[in-house]
Amino acid sequence: MHKLHLPRLGQTMERGTILRWARREGEPFEVGDILYEVESEKAVNEIEAKLPGTLARITVEEGQECPVGTLLAVVADPGETLSEEEIEAAIAEEGGREAPAASGGGTGVRAPSSARAQRRVRAMPKARALARELGVELAAVEGTGQGGAITVEDVRRAAGAAPGEGPRVRERRPLGDVGRTMARVVTRSWHEVPQFVQMVQLDASALVGRRRELAGQIKRSHGVDLSYTDLLLEAVAGAAGEEPLANSSLVDGEILLYEDVNVSVAVATGSGLLVPVVRWAQALELGELAARLREVLERARSGRLSAEDTAGGTITLSNLGMYGIEGGTPLVTHPQAAVVFAGAIVERPWAVSGRVEVRPTLTLSVGFDHRILDGVAAARFTTALRRRLESPNQEG
Predict the structure, then answer these.
(1) Where is the Peripheral subunit-binding (PSBD) domain (predicted)?
(2) What contacts 142, CB < 8 A, 6 or more positions away?
(3) What CATH code is assigned to 2-118?
Protein backbone atom coordinates (compact mmCIF):
# COMPACT_ATOMS: atom_id res chain seq x y z
CA MET A 1 0.00 0.00 0.00
CA HIS A 2 1.07 3.55 -0.65
CA LYS A 3 -0.55 6.99 -0.58
CA LEU A 4 -0.91 9.88 -3.00
CA HIS A 5 -0.41 13.36 -1.57
CA LEU A 6 -0.82 16.73 -3.26
CA PRO A 7 2.70 17.70 -4.46
CA ARG A 8 4.21 21.18 -4.40
CA LEU A 9 4.35 22.13 -8.09
CA GLY A 10 5.86 25.59 -7.72
CA GLN A 11 7.93 27.60 -5.26
CA THR A 12 4.95 29.59 -3.98
CA MET A 13 2.26 26.91 -4.32
CA GLU A 14 0.27 26.45 -1.12
CA ARG A 15 -2.99 24.92 -2.33
CA GLY A 16 -4.41 23.14 -5.36
CA THR A 17 -7.77 22.10 -6.79
CA ILE A 18 -8.39 18.60 -8.12
CA LEU A 19 -10.05 19.18 -11.48
CA ARG A 20 -10.38 15.59 -12.70
CA TRP A 21 -9.53 12.06 -11.66
CA ALA A 22 -8.38 10.05 -14.69
CA ARG A 23 -8.80 6.81 -12.72
CA ARG A 24 -11.73 5.79 -10.53
CA GLU A 25 -11.74 3.76 -7.34
CA GLY A 26 -10.96 0.13 -8.12
CA GLU A 27 -9.16 0.92 -11.38
CA PRO A 28 -5.53 -0.24 -11.82
CA PHE A 29 -2.80 1.92 -13.35
CA GLU A 30 0.82 1.65 -14.43
CA VAL A 31 3.85 3.90 -14.06
CA GLY A 32 3.43 6.95 -16.30
CA ASP A 33 -0.37 6.79 -16.46
CA ILE A 34 -2.19 10.06 -15.79
CA LEU A 35 -3.89 9.84 -12.40
CA TYR A 36 -5.45 13.28 -11.99
CA GLU A 37 -5.39 16.94 -13.04
CA VAL A 38 -4.70 19.65 -10.48
CA GLU A 39 -4.87 23.42 -10.82
CA SER A 40 -2.22 25.36 -8.93
CA GLU A 41 -0.69 28.81 -9.29
CA LYS A 42 -2.94 29.50 -12.30
CA ALA A 43 -1.77 26.41 -14.18
CA VAL A 44 -3.34 23.02 -14.85
CA ASN A 45 -1.02 20.04 -14.43
CA GLU A 46 -1.47 16.37 -15.26
CA ILE A 47 0.05 14.18 -12.55
CA GLU A 48 1.53 10.84 -13.59
CA ALA A 49 1.84 7.69 -11.51
CA LYS A 50 5.34 7.04 -10.17
CA LEU A 51 4.41 3.54 -8.96
CA PRO A 52 1.86 1.00 -10.25
CA GLY A 53 -1.22 0.13 -8.24
CA THR A 54 -5.00 0.31 -7.90
CA LEU A 55 -6.93 3.27 -6.48
CA ALA A 56 -8.45 1.88 -3.30
CA ARG A 57 -9.97 5.09 -1.96
CA ILE A 58 -10.10 8.66 -3.30
CA THR A 59 -10.19 11.10 -0.38
CA VAL A 60 -10.37 14.41 -2.26
CA GLU A 61 -13.06 14.65 -4.91
CA GLU A 62 -13.11 16.58 -8.17
CA GLY A 63 -13.66 20.28 -7.58
CA GLN A 64 -12.19 20.25 -4.08
CA GLU A 65 -9.34 22.53 -3.04
CA CYS A 66 -6.75 21.40 -0.50
CA PRO A 67 -3.32 22.37 0.86
CA VAL A 68 -0.03 20.93 -0.37
CA GLY A 69 0.64 17.61 1.34
CA THR A 70 -3.02 16.63 1.67
CA LEU A 71 -3.78 12.92 1.27
CA LEU A 72 -5.51 12.51 -2.10
CA ALA A 73 -5.88 8.75 -2.33
CA VAL A 74 -4.94 5.40 -0.84
CA VAL A 75 -3.41 2.98 -3.36
CA ALA A 76 -3.19 -0.80 -3.23
CA ASP A 77 0.08 -2.14 -4.62
CA PRO A 78 -0.06 -4.70 -7.47
CA GLY A 79 -1.50 -7.99 -6.23
CA GLU A 80 -2.61 -6.43 -2.94
CA THR A 81 -6.20 -6.35 -1.69
CA LEU A 82 -6.99 -3.81 1.03
CA SER A 83 -9.84 -4.23 3.47
CA GLU A 84 -12.06 -1.32 4.48
CA GLU A 85 -10.42 -1.39 7.91
CA GLU A 86 -6.94 -1.07 6.38
CA ILE A 87 -8.05 1.81 4.18
CA GLU A 88 -9.70 3.62 7.09
CA ALA A 89 -6.59 3.08 9.21
CA ALA A 90 -4.39 4.55 6.47
CA ILE A 91 -6.60 7.63 6.31
CA ALA A 92 -6.65 7.91 10.10
CA GLU A 93 -2.83 8.01 10.10
CA GLU A 94 -3.12 11.36 8.34
CA GLY A 95 -4.91 12.80 11.35
CA GLY A 96 -8.49 12.27 10.24
CA ARG A 97 -8.66 15.85 8.98
CA GLU A 98 -11.79 16.84 7.13
CA ALA A 99 -11.43 17.62 3.44
CA PRO A 100 -11.98 21.31 2.58
CA ALA A 101 -14.90 22.50 0.49
CA ALA A 102 -14.19 23.79 -3.01
CA SER A 103 -14.79 27.33 -1.81
CA GLY A 104 -11.64 27.13 0.30
CA GLY A 105 -12.72 26.05 3.79
CA GLY A 106 -10.93 23.29 5.70
CA THR A 107 -7.36 22.15 5.75
CA GLY A 108 -7.06 18.46 5.02
CA VAL A 109 -8.60 15.17 3.92
CA ARG A 110 -12.09 13.94 4.57
CA ALA A 111 -12.60 11.93 7.76
CA PRO A 112 -13.69 8.30 7.28
CA SER A 113 -17.16 8.87 8.73
CA SER A 114 -17.64 11.84 6.39
CA ALA A 115 -16.52 9.72 3.44
CA ARG A 116 -19.12 7.06 4.19
CA ALA A 117 -21.81 9.71 4.60
CA GLN A 118 -20.92 11.22 1.23
CA ARG A 119 -21.33 7.84 -0.47
CA ARG A 120 -24.91 7.45 0.80
CA VAL A 121 -25.93 10.35 -1.46
CA ARG A 122 -25.59 9.42 -5.14
CA ALA A 123 -24.41 12.43 -7.11
CA MET A 124 -22.30 13.11 -10.17
CA PRO A 125 -18.86 14.62 -9.33
CA LYS A 126 -19.70 17.89 -11.10
CA ALA A 127 -22.98 18.03 -9.18
CA ARG A 128 -21.10 17.66 -5.88
CA ALA A 129 -18.70 20.43 -6.83
CA LEU A 130 -21.55 22.75 -7.88
CA ALA A 131 -23.43 21.98 -4.67
CA ARG A 132 -20.42 23.13 -2.66
CA GLU A 133 -20.19 26.30 -4.77
CA LEU A 134 -23.87 27.17 -4.30
CA GLY A 135 -24.25 25.99 -0.72
CA VAL A 136 -26.82 23.30 -1.59
CA GLU A 137 -27.28 20.36 0.81
CA LEU A 138 -27.23 17.26 -1.39
CA ALA A 139 -29.23 15.19 1.08
CA ALA A 140 -32.21 17.47 0.43
CA VAL A 141 -32.01 17.23 -3.39
CA GLU A 142 -34.10 14.74 -5.37
CA GLY A 143 -31.98 13.11 -8.06
CA THR A 144 -33.32 12.64 -11.58
CA GLY A 145 -30.29 10.91 -13.07
CA GLN A 146 -29.73 7.23 -13.67
CA GLY A 147 -30.57 5.24 -10.54
CA GLY A 148 -31.65 8.42 -8.78
CA ALA A 149 -28.23 10.08 -9.01
CA ILE A 150 -28.18 13.84 -8.48
CA THR A 151 -27.22 15.79 -11.62
CA VAL A 152 -25.94 19.32 -12.16
CA GLU A 153 -29.43 20.35 -13.30
CA ASP A 154 -30.91 18.99 -10.05
CA VAL A 155 -28.50 21.10 -8.01
CA ARG A 156 -29.24 24.23 -10.05
CA ARG A 157 -32.99 23.75 -9.58
CA ALA A 158 -32.53 23.30 -5.84
CA ALA A 159 -30.40 26.44 -5.61
CA GLY A 160 -32.94 28.49 -7.55
CA ALA A 161 -35.81 27.32 -5.38
CA ALA A 162 -34.18 28.35 -2.10
CA PRO A 163 -36.23 31.01 -0.32
CA GLY A 164 -34.74 34.39 0.46
CA GLU A 165 -35.22 38.11 0.15
CA GLY A 166 -33.45 40.54 -2.13
CA PRO A 167 -33.09 41.02 -5.89
CA ARG A 168 -33.86 38.13 -8.22
CA VAL A 169 -30.80 36.28 -9.50
CA ARG A 170 -30.61 36.19 -13.30
CA GLU A 171 -27.66 33.81 -13.47
CA ARG A 172 -25.27 32.02 -11.13
CA ARG A 173 -21.65 31.91 -12.23
CA PRO A 174 -19.37 29.74 -10.09
CA LEU A 175 -16.06 31.51 -9.56
CA GLY A 176 -14.13 28.62 -11.09
CA ASP A 177 -10.64 27.37 -10.32
CA VAL A 178 -8.69 30.16 -12.03
CA GLY A 179 -10.98 32.75 -10.47
CA ARG A 180 -10.53 31.30 -6.99
CA THR A 181 -6.76 31.30 -7.43
CA MET A 182 -6.77 34.92 -8.57
CA ALA A 183 -9.07 35.95 -5.72
CA ARG A 184 -6.78 34.30 -3.18
CA VAL A 185 -3.63 35.88 -4.63
CA VAL A 186 -4.97 39.44 -4.85
CA THR A 187 -6.59 39.21 -1.40
CA ARG A 188 -3.29 38.16 0.14
CA SER A 189 -1.44 40.93 -1.69
CA TRP A 190 -3.98 43.55 -0.58
CA HIS A 191 -3.84 42.52 3.08
CA GLU A 192 -0.12 41.77 3.45
CA VAL A 193 1.66 44.21 1.14
CA PRO A 194 1.67 47.99 1.84
CA GLN A 195 1.63 49.38 -1.68
CA PHE A 196 2.00 52.66 -3.52
CA VAL A 197 1.86 53.62 -7.19
CA GLN A 198 3.94 56.03 -9.25
CA MET A 199 2.53 57.28 -12.56
CA VAL A 200 4.45 58.83 -15.41
CA GLN A 201 3.40 59.99 -18.87
CA LEU A 202 6.00 59.65 -21.60
CA ASP A 203 6.55 60.53 -25.24
CA ALA A 204 5.97 57.26 -27.10
CA SER A 205 7.34 58.47 -30.46
CA ALA A 206 10.49 56.37 -30.16
CA LEU A 207 8.48 53.35 -29.02
CA VAL A 208 6.13 53.58 -32.00
CA GLY A 209 9.01 54.20 -34.41
CA ARG A 210 11.09 51.35 -33.03
CA ARG A 211 8.26 48.88 -33.42
CA ARG A 212 7.73 49.99 -37.02
CA GLU A 213 11.46 49.83 -37.75
CA LEU A 214 12.11 46.38 -36.25
CA ALA A 215 8.86 44.58 -37.09
CA GLY A 216 10.06 43.19 -40.42
CA GLN A 217 13.42 42.09 -39.06
CA ILE A 218 11.86 40.27 -36.08
CA LYS A 219 9.30 38.62 -38.36
CA ARG A 220 12.03 37.27 -40.63
CA SER A 221 14.37 36.14 -37.86
CA HIS A 222 11.89 34.73 -35.32
CA GLY A 223 8.59 34.37 -37.18
CA VAL A 224 6.53 36.53 -34.82
CA ASP A 225 4.83 39.91 -35.12
CA LEU A 226 6.55 42.42 -32.85
CA SER A 227 4.14 43.93 -30.31
CA TYR A 228 4.30 46.83 -27.89
CA THR A 229 4.20 44.27 -25.07
CA ASP A 230 7.48 42.82 -26.39
CA LEU A 231 9.12 46.25 -26.26
CA LEU A 232 7.70 46.91 -22.79
CA LEU A 233 9.00 43.54 -21.63
CA GLU A 234 12.49 44.42 -22.86
CA ALA A 235 12.37 47.77 -21.05
CA VAL A 236 11.12 46.24 -17.78
CA ALA A 237 13.92 43.67 -17.80
CA GLY A 238 16.53 46.37 -18.42
CA ALA A 239 15.17 48.76 -15.79
CA ALA A 240 15.06 45.96 -13.21
CA GLY A 241 18.76 45.49 -13.79
CA GLU A 242 19.36 49.17 -13.02
CA GLU A 243 17.31 49.13 -9.80
CA PRO A 244 17.66 45.64 -8.25
CA LEU A 245 15.18 46.36 -5.45
CA ALA A 246 12.40 46.30 -8.04
CA ASN A 247 13.40 42.70 -8.79
CA SER A 248 13.41 41.32 -5.26
CA SER A 249 11.32 39.79 -2.48
CA LEU A 250 11.03 40.24 1.28
CA VAL A 251 11.41 36.82 2.92
CA ASP A 252 11.82 36.23 6.67
CA GLY A 253 13.13 39.72 7.33
CA GLU A 254 15.62 39.67 4.46
CA ILE A 255 15.43 41.26 1.00
CA LEU A 256 16.37 38.73 -1.65
CA LEU A 257 17.83 40.45 -4.73
CA TYR A 258 17.42 38.19 -7.74
CA GLU A 259 20.08 37.74 -10.39
CA ASP A 260 17.53 36.69 -13.01
CA VAL A 261 14.65 38.88 -14.18
CA ASN A 262 11.67 36.54 -14.62
CA VAL A 263 8.79 38.67 -15.87
CA SER A 264 5.23 37.55 -15.13
CA VAL A 265 3.04 38.76 -18.02
CA ALA A 266 -0.70 39.08 -17.37
CA VAL A 267 -2.88 37.58 -20.12
CA ALA A 268 -6.66 37.24 -20.40
CA THR A 269 -7.98 33.78 -21.32
CA GLY A 270 -11.37 32.17 -21.59
CA SER A 271 -11.00 30.75 -18.08
CA GLY A 272 -9.74 33.97 -16.49
CA LEU A 273 -6.54 35.93 -15.89
CA LEU A 274 -3.32 33.92 -16.12
CA VAL A 275 0.23 35.12 -15.52
CA PRO A 276 2.84 33.02 -17.35
CA VAL A 277 6.51 33.82 -16.78
CA VAL A 278 9.18 34.81 -19.32
CA ARG A 279 12.37 33.58 -17.68
CA TRP A 280 15.83 35.16 -17.89
CA ALA A 281 14.41 38.18 -19.70
CA GLN A 282 17.53 40.21 -18.93
CA ALA A 283 19.64 37.83 -21.04
CA LEU A 284 17.43 37.66 -24.14
CA GLU A 285 17.57 39.78 -27.27
CA LEU A 286 14.35 41.47 -28.40
CA GLY A 287 13.54 38.81 -31.00
CA GLU A 288 14.11 36.03 -28.47
CA LEU A 289 11.91 37.83 -25.94
CA ALA A 290 9.11 38.18 -28.48
CA ALA A 291 9.31 34.52 -29.47
CA ARG A 292 9.48 33.31 -25.85
CA LEU A 293 6.53 35.49 -24.86
CA ARG A 294 4.48 34.20 -27.78
CA GLU A 295 5.16 30.61 -26.72
CA VAL A 296 3.91 31.04 -23.16
CA LEU A 297 0.94 33.17 -24.23
CA GLU A 298 -0.18 30.48 -26.67
CA ARG A 299 0.08 27.83 -23.96
CA ALA A 300 -1.91 30.05 -21.60
CA ARG A 301 -4.72 30.66 -24.09
CA SER A 302 -4.94 26.98 -25.02
CA GLY A 303 -4.98 25.82 -21.40
CA ARG A 304 -1.62 24.05 -21.63
CA LEU A 305 0.38 25.98 -19.01
CA SER A 306 2.54 23.88 -16.72
CA ALA A 307 3.54 24.69 -13.15
CA GLU A 308 6.96 25.77 -14.43
CA ASP A 309 5.33 28.25 -16.81
CA THR A 310 3.82 30.23 -13.92
CA ALA A 311 6.34 29.77 -11.12
CA GLY A 312 9.32 31.92 -10.19
CA GLY A 313 8.18 35.32 -11.44
CA THR A 314 10.15 38.23 -9.96
CA ILE A 315 8.27 41.24 -11.42
CA THR A 316 4.97 41.64 -13.30
CA LEU A 317 3.99 43.40 -16.55
CA SER A 318 0.37 44.12 -17.46
CA ASN A 319 -0.55 45.85 -20.73
CA LEU A 320 -4.20 46.83 -21.22
CA GLY A 321 -3.49 49.40 -23.91
CA MET A 322 -5.31 47.34 -26.54
CA TYR A 323 -8.53 47.90 -24.54
CA GLY A 324 -8.15 51.68 -24.53
CA ILE A 325 -7.34 51.85 -20.80
CA GLU A 326 -4.92 54.71 -20.17
CA GLY A 327 -3.96 54.22 -16.53
CA GLY A 328 -4.71 52.32 -13.36
CA THR A 329 -3.55 51.32 -9.89
CA PRO A 330 -2.14 47.80 -10.26
CA LEU A 331 -1.66 45.42 -7.32
CA VAL A 332 1.78 44.06 -6.53
CA THR A 333 1.66 40.25 -6.50
CA HIS A 334 3.16 38.76 -3.33
CA PRO A 335 6.08 37.99 -3.02
CA GLN A 336 7.18 40.30 -5.85
CA ALA A 337 8.22 43.91 -5.23
CA ALA A 338 6.88 45.69 -8.32
CA VAL A 339 4.29 45.61 -11.09
CA VAL A 340 4.28 47.68 -14.30
CA PHE A 341 0.91 48.61 -15.82
CA ALA A 342 0.99 50.09 -19.34
CA GLY A 343 -1.94 51.99 -20.80
CA ALA A 344 -3.03 52.85 -24.31
CA ILE A 345 -0.88 54.94 -26.65
CA VAL A 346 -2.84 58.17 -27.14
CA GLU A 347 -2.02 61.27 -29.21
CA ARG A 348 -1.76 64.40 -27.06
CA PRO A 349 -0.32 67.92 -27.26
CA TRP A 350 3.33 67.71 -26.17
CA ALA A 351 5.81 70.48 -25.42
CA VAL A 352 8.95 70.14 -27.56
CA SER A 353 11.69 72.80 -27.32
CA GLY A 354 9.27 75.62 -26.57
CA ARG A 355 6.62 74.61 -29.09
CA VAL A 356 3.59 72.34 -28.97
CA GLU A 357 3.38 69.22 -31.12
CA VAL A 358 0.94 66.33 -31.24
CA ARG A 359 2.82 63.24 -30.09
CA PRO A 360 1.86 59.65 -29.23
CA THR A 361 1.97 59.34 -25.44
CA LEU A 362 1.92 56.45 -23.00
CA THR A 363 1.04 56.39 -19.30
CA LEU A 364 2.87 53.95 -17.04
CA SER A 365 1.48 53.11 -13.60
CA VAL A 366 4.07 51.29 -11.50
CA GLY A 367 3.14 49.66 -8.19
CA PHE A 368 5.68 48.93 -5.45
CA ASP A 369 5.95 47.06 -2.16
CA HIS A 370 6.71 49.88 0.29
CA ARG A 371 8.46 47.48 2.67
CA ILE A 372 11.16 46.99 0.04
CA LEU A 373 11.30 50.24 -1.95
CA ASP A 374 10.92 53.78 -0.68
CA GLY A 375 9.83 56.59 -2.97
CA VAL A 376 13.36 57.38 -4.16
CA ALA A 377 14.29 53.80 -5.03
CA ALA A 378 10.96 53.40 -6.81
CA ALA A 379 11.57 56.62 -8.74
CA ARG A 380 14.92 55.28 -9.93
CA PHE A 381 13.18 52.27 -11.43
CA THR A 382 10.33 54.31 -12.94
CA THR A 383 12.78 56.82 -14.41
CA ALA A 384 14.94 54.05 -15.88
CA LEU A 385 11.86 52.48 -17.43
CA ARG A 386 10.77 55.78 -18.93
CA ARG A 387 14.22 56.48 -20.35
CA ARG A 388 14.45 53.05 -21.97
CA LEU A 389 11.13 53.62 -23.75
CA GLU A 390 11.65 57.28 -24.72
CA SER A 391 15.36 57.01 -25.59
CA PRO A 392 16.18 53.31 -26.16
CA ASN A 393 19.69 54.08 -27.44
CA GLN A 394 20.67 56.19 -24.42
CA GLU A 395 22.95 54.52 -21.88
CA GLY A 396 21.73 54.28 -18.27
Answers:
(1) 122-159
(2) 150, 154
(3) 2.40.50.100
